């Protein structure tokens, strides 16, 4: 599969990518645990069918020490015992926030209460922003047909500036 356009060779595309990377850097530097960030990004990317982002967040999580068992079970987190209650709350928020068109009520009060139970306001700001940003990145990459399989951990680190 060939990408439809390379945003990194387009003046507007590069500007947009840098801004997205800068938002990602703010989220990455927040107190939201890195493992939770990668699990959330991976789950949204699975739902949206974004090969590049599934590839990226699986490899980044593994490079950060995430286990293969947990990475392999993200898609079935509800039927798994390897995630903490806090991670489960974040994954529920991710699914409900990603499937807005499917769940016309958006994020449920029950899910929001679980998120509030496990995360402080700064972490929630990072979590909600992460769900929004990974969905945006997924949509860019799916529309452009950017394939998974070539990502190396840290590959886009230099994007933010």
TrEMBL record:
Transmembrane segments: none annotated. It comes from the Bacteria. Pfam families: CMD. InterPro entries: AhpD-like, AhpD_core, CMD-like. Residues 26-96 form the Carboxymuconolactone decarboxylase-like domain. PANTHER family: 4-CARBOXYMUCONOLACTONE DECARBOXYLASE FAMILY PROTEIN (AFU_ORTHOLOGUE AFUA_6G11590), BLL7811 PROTEIN. This is Carboxymuconolactone decarboxylase family protein.
């Amino acid at each position: 599969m060939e990408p439809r356009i390379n945003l990194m060779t387009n003046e507007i595309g590069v500007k947009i990518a840098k801004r997205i990377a800068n938002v990602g850097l703010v989220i990455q530097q927040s107190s939201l645990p890195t493992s939770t960030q990668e699990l959330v990004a991976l789950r949204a990317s699975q739902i949206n069918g974004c090969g590049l982002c599934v590839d990226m967040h699986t490899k980044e999580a593994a490079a950060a020490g995430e286990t293969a068992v947990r990475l392999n079970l993200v898609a079935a987190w509800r039927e798994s015992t390897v995630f903490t209650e806090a991670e489960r709350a974040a994954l529920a928020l991710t699914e409900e926030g990603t499937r807005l068109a499917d769940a016309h009520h958006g994020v449920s009060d029950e899910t929001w209460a679980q998120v509030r139970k496990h995360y402080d306001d700064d972490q929630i700001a990072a979590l909600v922003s992460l769900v929004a940003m990974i969905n945006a990145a997924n949509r860019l990459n799916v529309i452009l047909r950017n394939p998974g399989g070539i990502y190396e951990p840290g590959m886009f680190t230099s994007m933010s500036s």
